[in-house]
């Protein structure tokens, strides 16, 4: 005689099968989420290496240094001499046409920025101002010694620096703006970003009350990966073959001063930019290399 199977054991077996299937699905989904959130093994290794044992160095915000602002009004004779000498090196309109043209400006709702698109910029380079050249080896040594410094070899290193705070995003600020970048990323070491903000504030203060008030200097190159640097070298002979200070987040290039009023000539903003670079350089804050199309600035100490 055939004995009927126990219905309760059959139900129990089916339930265990279903529970096993659900458990497998949950494990698979959680593994996928970990992979998405955690990033690649290489990025995680770079993040850990850049964070430990050297943590991000916090930098206290500071006001612009009044010593580096415009010379007091009592030094009139010096001012007159600098105005005449600076005016002599500002290129004529036909010569300025040979200089690198301004990069496209991202649409801005502000009317002043719209008007500025049609105004010829003032060039910031070795042909328009006199600033002593510091050897590039000094730039490289300074870049390596900054508190948060590390070599940005590739995108993995760049992303790790962003995640652990060793690189901070750079935005337009008072006295300066960031150009549309094609060979670099708008990120800098925190201490280099502080330098850029200080220089922007000092430049804006120096132009306050003049016909050039509101003019800003344009930053055309910021942090590059080593891969970007090698690619740039193929088309720009000024790009170094050795490790670039741009790949440490320690440098930026200033190529133009953008005016909002075409009635104001380039004499005043060019003179103030030259004066600003010289004072920061003499104060031991920056190193400078005057190039044919820009001024290469490296932070010497925070």
Q: Quote the distance from N terminus to C terminus.
A: 95 Å
Strand content: 5-15%
Please provide the count of β strands: 8
**Rg of Cα set:** 28 Å
- Please, how many domains? 1
Largest sheet: 6 strands, mixed
Average pLDDT score: 76
How would you summarize the topology of this molecule?
Elements: H1 7-38, H2 41-51, H3 76-89, H4 93-96, H5 111-116, E1 122-123, H6 136-145, H7 155-164, E2 168-169, E3 176-178, E4 187-188, H8 190-207, E5 216-221, H9 226-233, E6 251-258, H10 267-282, E7 286-290, E8 295-299
Parallel strand pairs: 3-5
Antiparallel strand pairs: 1-6, 2-4, 5-6, 6-8, 7-8
Helix pairs in contact: 2-7, 3-10, 8-10
Descriptive keywords:
302 residues, six-stranded mixed sheet, alpha+beta, 10 helices, 11% strand
Overview of this protein structure:
This protein is α+β, with helices and mostly antiparallel strands and 302 residues long. The protein is built from ten helices and eight strands. The chain has one domain (66-299). α2 (41-51) crosses α7 and α3 (76-89) packs across α10 (267-282). Mean pLDDT is 76; it is low at 34-38 and 69-112.
